[in-house]
Amino acid sequence: MDSQKGDVEREAKNGLSGRNDNLCSSAGGLRRGVGTDNHKKSDKQKEELDEAIEISFAEPLRKSDAYKWQSGDDNDLAKSHQNDFHPSNPPYVPKGNRVCGGCNRDINYGNYLGCMGKYFHPECFRCHACSYPITEKEFSLSGKDTYHKTCFKELTHPKCEVCFQYIPLNGDGLIEYRLHPFWSQKYCPAHELDNTARCCSCERLEPMNVRYILLEDGRSLCLECLESAIMDTGECQPLYHSIRDYYEGMNMRIDQQIPMLLVERQALNDATTRDKNGFHRLPETRGICLYEEQTVASILRRPSVSGHRLVGMRTQYQKLTRRCEVTAILVLYGLPRLLTGAILAHHLMNAWLRLKGYRNLNPEVEAGICQVLSYMWLESEIMPNIPSSSSSSTTTSKKGGKSRNENKLGEFFMHQIAHDASPAYGGGFRAANAAVNTYGLRRTLDHIRLTGNFPL
Ligand SMILES: [Zn+2]
Ligand SMILES: [Zn+2]
Ligand SMILES: [Zn+2]
Ligand SMILES: [Zn+2]
């Protein structure tokens, strides 16, 4: 879980910087919101609004100065000018020559108001968001657009996607929130400390109107990840075989029958601790390629959903004997199909290297090239237009039926591989990927065999 912290970026918005210039420069005229669909803002409008939010916080009181009810009597208008120091008030115009900035008709009698160098009928001074007249003393201004303060806040103040409240200001008066770099999930920093569940697969926090599933080992799984989650050893075999086929299609056939088991978190951690040769990925190991004989509890029967928990799993101890250089591949249960596959593709590459006599590779080289295979397999799964190089693929029944959600998850796992901060997995992947893009996989592997390093 902790590894996710590094991936979550901080973003702070300055809510208090003075932007008086913008306020004054808006004196050129007022554009009215038309139609009723103004809540659907385009991206550009959103950007403008993002900027404008700062004005809204900075100058609510001064803005109200620009907005004064005035009677049709010229003397009152003159008086109000003396009292009003805001530069955007309209110049004095003789009665009868005032044109409403909203409807463009003359203002002949009754109340009117002056704002930003223009006059308005009261009913023509409207909110750019909801199109209703603004009658409050204070309002918000974005560029030349006027808004109800509440409408403006609704449009611009970021809301937390976990608790659905406006993100609170921090001690310095700034709007500070966390933003997931891939999903763009925006949330109050407090949820990192208040035991809000985080999906162990996609990293998204549990919104308050949704219940994640709790796995028996304490991990949480969101419902999207649960949809394609692989829960027991038997269920995982077709995927395992399709990835072996994928290797074969790349002319990297693995002849040995290497057992593959789905296991619980504890079993995986125990096996990892016992296996001195495996690379250990901190803080959470999700798979391992075993080189030594061990007895491991394999998940025999999948747990079922009961309430918001997964229960009733059955495991069976299995003695793994060594029939070749590689004893077994173990993968954590309960992960979505694409993540399970990515882990399998990685550890099959460990196995392949071992079986082909690659020895004593440094962690960056081994983890890096294994992550490249993982990445390539994901790519082949989520980009169906890339022609499969596999000649005898028979286990593609689950392929092709992927939902948009599942594809998006696949993109996320690729993003995670590419942006991993660890030296071995992240740095190794980036170096290996650069080499493979330049020289191709085969030549890169040959170079690694000869030199123990990536070609530069
Ligand atoms: Zn008007
Ligand atoms: Zn409004
Ligand atoms: Zn929140
Ligand atoms: Zn998830």
From TrEMBL:
Residues 1-13, 37-47 have a biased composition (Basic and acidic residues). Keywords: LIM domain, Metal-binding, Repeat, Zinc. InterPro entries: DA1-like, DA1-like_dom, Znf_LIM. One of its GO terms (molecular function) is ubiquitin binding. Residues 1-48, 68-90 are annotated as: Disordered. PANTHER family: PROTEIN DA1-RELATED 2, TRANSCRIPTION FACTOR INTERACTOR AND REGULATOR LIM FAMILY. This is LIM zinc-binding domain-containing protein. It comes from Lactuca saligna (Willowleaf lettuce).
